[in-house]
Amino acid sequence: MDFPIDAWYDAIFLRHSQRKYSGKVPNDEVTRRIEEVCAEFRPFSGARAVLVKEPANDVFKGAVGPYVLRVTEAPYYIAFVANMNAPNIQAITGYLGEGVILEATSLGLNTCWVGGFFRRNAVLKQIDLHDDERVLAITPVGYSKQKLDRVGGSSKRYRRKSLDRLIVSGELDDNKWIETALEAVRIAPSAANRQPWRFQISNDSVTVLANSRREGLGVSRKLDCGIAMLHLELGALTAGSKGSWEFLQYPGVARYKVS
Length: 259
Ligand SMILES: Cc1cc2nc3c(=O)[nH]c(=O)nc-3n(C[C@H](O)[C@H](O)[C@H](O)COP(=O)(O)O)c2cc1C
Description:
Layout: H1 5-12, H2 28-40, E1 47-52, E2 76-83, H3 89-106, E3 110-111, H4 120-124, E4 133-142, H5 163-166, E5 167-169, H6 176-186, E6 197-202, E7 205-210, H7 221-238, E8 243-247, E9 252-258
Parallel strand pairs: 5-6
Antiparallel strand pairs: 1-2, 2-4, 3-4, 6-7, 7-9, 8-9
The protein binds flavin mononucleotide.
């Protein structure tokens, strides 16, 4: 499936995590589109997204970890399923999941990545997994409870690191595509907003690095970096720079090189 570049790039700036839902069920057309994206967006092999058209109340019951709010009243949720034997699976799952989330956002739906703090057993009652698969994260899908906090209506400010703290080598040098790409990454979501991505830049490439190997919060930093990869690519494509990804060994995650 080709990206709807403009719609997903715009969605980057509309998305924010929503935890309180109204219970309203998306109509058939919206539901079909989400199902379509879950089935068709498979940019790398090893990960898949499954829409569960049942309330997620049991799944979100209990522990919230460091998060203040628990997710409530979501009519649907999506599970991001990973084949744990596939190479680079954490980054691949982040990239795939964020594509589905940006599509949901562009349809006017709210979402929230939930990595460590959900009940896996409750999910396993609602979806089938193969032996080597694991649910790495889920997202509720629905409409915000508060009208003013719907997609695009948020007055929340992004709390994010500045670019100069994220770039570990190379200079921006007025390089428009890299600037657009990194601004799109800067506001990407990450577990507990830890923003573990770092960048090495050159004229024709950006290398994404993870700032630690640790799996804090039960969520790999490489999963966050996979989310960042999709934002980076959407920014690059929006600025007219088409390229491709090469996966790397730690501390590298992947390099985007323009063709
Ligand atoms: C991989 C991942 C896991 C997350 N896990 C949780 C979670 O378990 N519970 C939660 O409430 N929020 C979770 N979040 C949401 C982050 O806290 C949120 O994205 C971050 O604070 C930035 O806020 P924003 O999404 O509104 O821009 C997660 C986000 C990511 C990317």
